[in-house]
Amino acid sequence: MRPSSKVIVSCAITGSIHTPTMSPHLPVSAETIGTQAIDAARAGAAILHLHARVEGTGAPSQKPEDYARFLPRIRDNCDAVVNITTGGGLGMSLEDRLAPALAFAPELASMNMGSLNFNISGAASKIKEFQHDWERPYLEMTQDFILSNTFTQIERGIRALSEQGTRFEYECYDVGHLYNLAHFLDRGLVDGPLFVQGVFGILGGIAAETEHLLHMRRTADRLFGDQYVMSVLAAGRHQMPMAVTNATLGGHVRVGLEDSIYIAKGELAQSNAQQVEKITRILNELSIETATPDEARTMLGLKGAAHVKF
C-alpha cells in the first residue's frame, strides 16, 4: 500500500440503506443533504460520498435533477471532493445508477466491485410503523435480493466514466472483490493509485472483524503493491472501531449516516458532521493528521474541482 502521512476522511451523507423512519436526523431533502454535506466538509471531511433522495418521500433517487438540487450549493460552499454513487438505490438498473455520474462528471464515483447478497431486511422487523409506504417493502425485499455488479456492468461503468476523467472509489465487500479489481488492473482498464474502500458488516459481505480487515489488507498488498490506498467503512456499531483500526495501520476512513445512524451506543447521531468531528478528534488524539481536500486530490490523482460539470 502507498504509505501516507495523513488520513483521508470520507463522509457518506445519506446513502440508500437507512430510511426516514429510522432517524429524524437522516438528511433526505435536497436542502438537508446539502447542509449536512457542507457541515461535514467544514468538520474535516475531505471527500463527500453522495446519494440523492426523492423530495417528499425520501426514497432513493438516481435522477440527475435530484442531484442538481444540491451539487452546485455544495460546490459553492466548500472545497471537498464530490464522490457520486453508482450503486444508487437497491434494485435500480445500471443505466439509472450511472446517470448522475455521467451527467456531472465528478472527480470521484463509487464502483462496486462484485455482485453479492445484500440483506438489510432485518431492519424492517424493528419498526412497527413507517412514515412512508415504500420503506417496509424496500427493506423486506432484500431477503431475496442480489446486488448485481457483473464483470460486464463494471466494465461499462469504468469505461464510460473514465472517458470524462472521473476516478473511482472501488467498493470491495469481500476478498473476491479485490481479485475482481486486480482483473481490471491486469487488463489495463484501471490504473493506480487505486482508492480501495473496504466495506465491512453488510449481511452478505465480509463481517466487521479485525482479522478480516488484516486479511483484506494483506491480500491487497499482494495484488496491488504500492499502487493502492485502502479506506474502510463498517456498518452500524462497527463504524468507529474499524475506522480507527485502519487509520492506525496507515489507511483511510469513512464515516457518515449512510453507514451508521448512531454516534454512540443507543444514541442517534444528530448529523454527519458530528461523526466527522468524532473520528477527527480520535485521530488527532492519536497524533494522526487528517488530509485536506487538496491533499486528498494529490494522493488519489484526481482531476480537480474545476473539471466537473456542476
TrEMBL record:
GO terms for MF: 3-keto-5-aminohexanoate cleavage activity; metal ion binding
A matching Pfam family: BKACE
Keywords tagged on the record: Metal-binding, Transferase, Zinc
Metal-binding keyword on record: yes
InterPro entries to which the protein is assigned, alphabetical: Aldolase_TIM, BKACE
Cofactor(s), names only, from the UniProt record: Zn(2+)
PANTHER family, sorted: 3-KETO-5-AMINOHEXANOATE CLEAVAGE ENZYME, 3-KETO-5-AMINOHEXANOATE CLEAVAGE ENZYME-RELATED
UniProt name for this protein: Uncharacterized conserved protein, DUF849 family
Source organism: Paracoccus alkenifer
